[in-house]
Predict the 3D structure of the following.
Amino acid sequence: MNMNEKEMTFEVAIARLEEIVRMLEGGNAPLDQSLALFEEGVALVKLCNSRLDTAEQKVKILTMGGDGTLVESDMQ
């Protein structure tokens, strides 16, 4: 990975992961490079899952209360 994980956006991580998948599916990389790509891909999947978990925790649901006011609750 070229970027520090803290600097890498979810979108950049997904794009790199797609690139890695294409390269591995092509089957043209030597074994050592394929293993390195696979390890990078695993790290990117973990990063993406972490970012998704964090985003999910931030999502709130707005519902209309009985008195007509908006009520905020956590997503379940």
